[in-house]
Every structure is written in structure tokens, then in C-alpha cells.
Amino acid sequence: MRSYYEHNNIDGRPKIMLVGKGARGLGFSFAPMGKLLREAPSQGTWLDTKVVCSKPCHGMNLLSTESEDYLYNPCTGYCSSYHTRGRFAYVPNHILSMMHDSVRTPEDHAFGVGNRNAGLGFNLLTQEHVIVQILYHLKDFESRQYLLTFSVIAPGSVQDHFERPLPLNDMPPTYLSGVLYWMSEPRLGQSYERAIVSYNIATRMFGVIPCPSSIAMWNSTSPSQAFVVELEGILCAVHADPVADELDIWKLEHGRWDRACRIYLEDCSGYSLGANVVVPLAVDPKDGRIMLNTGRKLGLYDPTKQSVENLYDLDEVLRVTSSEQSPRVGVYEDVQMTKCGHYVEKFCLPKSPLEQPTFFDEPSPKLSGKRFTCSNGVQPLEGRTPLDSKVMPLVPMLYEESLARFPRVCKTRWLS
Questions:
Q1: In which residue ranges of the chain is pLDDT below 50?
Q2: What angle do CA 172, 173, 176 make, to 5 degrees?
Q3: Of 100, 140, 101, 133, the residue nearest 116 (C-alpha)
Q4: How far are the Cα atoms of 69, 106, 258, 291, 349 from residue 80, in angstroms, in the given order?
């Protein structure tokens, strides 16, 4: 399994799939982005519920909706689903009374799903994937009061935590070397400054990392946003200034912050920070260009030219009314960033997080020119249409070619 992973990811270049609705309206489908160079996607594959995808973590991806999380290996068809744990957690009576009058409107951007987010990590001691779910029961920006549930789901165990160092913002966390990281929410709690909250999966310990001073500063009149990402294996803090249309990226190395780069988006159509949250996903090791994702567009930013080359444009896809139309829509022909293209289709029913996950073992996939789909039986939300501006009909997702599954089969160790 390890040699397969190393061989198929040897170039280190980002690989992209588009996530859509699964066969017969069940689950999710996955298709290499280059597939759109050959045929336009049919409306039957368009998502009708909002989906946020994690970056790959040891061969797996987490897909989150407003009510559930789905763990996938898109290259094998492995899948497992988990309900939001925090919905069943005990909430004190005095908090329940406040919840009826509290402001809990979720942020409206491509990377938020209701009043919750979820992250995928890896326990380096047990060699197991771990899902961390966060759900806000109370979020009142006027009184700055809040209550959130922090749930950790691992094979055979579920833990809920109410105590954390700081409130967390609504952006998904980033994972790096056994630790998950979030940006704090300066509009809640006692602190008016931003900081990074860490959670060590193996030790189950929280920590707080100070931000660079330019990111830590916050005031209620500023429209700026901040979040954390992983780029080239380094923890980075991103400050988004919609007034200047600039992303300021800082990297943490050897215990100190240094500016990594500044991204200028004023002249980049479709990447305006006033209308979008723009997330740096990866750095192309071949030429140093930075992959940017708005949910509607995916592009490579050239720091030298200060311009973006589009890889994928959802607005172009939305102009397609049937699969009979133009076969070259929404994806730019000179971009070939994925090579995994076999066909896999499996189904599994959603299970309670207190139960052992159901999963399917697949043989080692063979690479071919065909598309592939993977589905796990999640039912779509009713009353949503593919053209709903809050629902992306197709969602881009980074992935790794891997045979990983969850939980991993551990070998018996004998004492000599």
C-alpha cells in the first residue's frame, strides 16, 4: 500500500477531482477534472446540497454537509458516514433558554456548512484517521456569548469536549503532522485578538499559537478575514483584505512567523475578496504557482505575473443545459492535473457514529481512461435546485492516489 501511494504521488503535483451527486441521486460521484475536456457534466450529477471537501489526509478525504460527514477514499470506493455528534450532546438549561434569542446565522461562503465544521486528521501513534466535528449551539456576536461542542470520532470511540481555549471561526481546520489547527473567532468570547487553536490528536491536548501581529489585530469595523492553511507541509496563516483585494500569507517555521507571499487579486476576475472567500490550496512544485479556490473557480496564481490562470470555472458549467452541448466547458484544455480514472461504484447506508463504520474493501485499482464514480447512500436535501447560488453543483477536491481505508487493519504484535 505504501509503495502504491509513493509511486502514484511521486511528482507531488496537486491532483483534482470534481465532486457531484452519485448514481440514482445517492451519495457522491467523483470524476477527474480532465473529464470535462471530453464531455460536459449532465445535470443529473449536479449537487443539490452544500458540500465542503477537506484536503487529502493519508489517502482519505472528508466531505461535509450541514448534518453529516462522509469519509471517502475516492480511488477505491471506500466510504463511511457520521452524523453530527454535537446535536445529541447535553446542553445546560440556561444555555437552552439563551439559544432561542441568540444570533446563529451561518456565514454565507463556499467553505461553511451551517453552524458547524469538521476536520480530518491522523493519529500518528495508532496510525488511525480521526474526525473532529464542531457544532455551535449558541453564537451571539452582540453579547459575545457562545457554546460549541467539540467531538472527536476515532475507531471504536467518541469523545465530546465543551472546554477549549478559544472560540473557533467557521472555516474548516487544517491538518499537519498529527495536529489540527483552527483560527479563533475574535467576535466571540473575551479575547478581541485572533490566535490559532491547535489540537494534538495523539495527546488530546489543546494549545494556542499567537498570530503575526498584522493578523492578530481585529476590530468590529474591519471586513477582513483570517484562516489557516497548509502549504508545502508548513502551517500558514492567511489574512484576507477585501478592501485592497490582497491575501497576505504567513508561514510558521522553527517557532517564528515570516511572510511567505502576498497575493494581489484586484485584476483577477472572479477572485474578488469582496465577493468570495479565496483559499490557497496548494503550491505547484514544478513552477511555484499557488492554487486558489473560491468554490466557483479554481486557478493557479503566478506571483511573478500577479495573474491567475483558470483551471475550472463553475459559471461556465452552469451555462450547460444538457450533456449534448459543448464537450469543452468550464475546464481549460492545457491543464492535466490528474491521472486516476477508473470506475468504482459502491453503496453503504449512513450509520450512527456510535456504531462501527461500514466500509467496502476494494482491490487495487488499475488506471485507465474511464471515469469513475463512488457513492455511499447519502440522501440529498429536498427543495434545492442545481442553480441555487448557495449550492455549488460541482465542488473541486484535491486528492491523493491511495489504497487507504478506515479503520486500518493493525498487525498483531508479539512480545519476545
A1: 1, 4-7, 103, 321-329, 333-388, 409-416
A2: 145
A3: 133
A4: 8, 26, 39, 29, 8
Indicate the helix (H) or strand (E) that contains 94. Answer: helix 93-99
What is the rounded CA–CA span in Å between residue 293 and residue 60? 20
Query: What's this model's pTM, rounded to 2 decimal places?
Result: 0.80
Which are the contacts of 67, defined by CB distance < 8 A and separation ≥ 6?
Answer: 83, 84, 87, 114
Distance of CA 251 to the CA centre of its chain: 20
pLDDT in tens, 38-48: 666 677 788 88
Cα-to-chain-centroid distance, residue 48 = 18
**CA separation for the pair 151, 116 (Å, rounded):** 11
Q: Where are the beta strands (DSSP E) in 169-241?
A: 174-176, 179-183, 195-200, 205-210, 225-231, 234-241
Query: Coil, strand, or helix at residue 33?
Result: helix
Grid cell, residue 224, equals 477582513
β partners of residue 197: 182, 208
d(CA 153, CA 295): 27
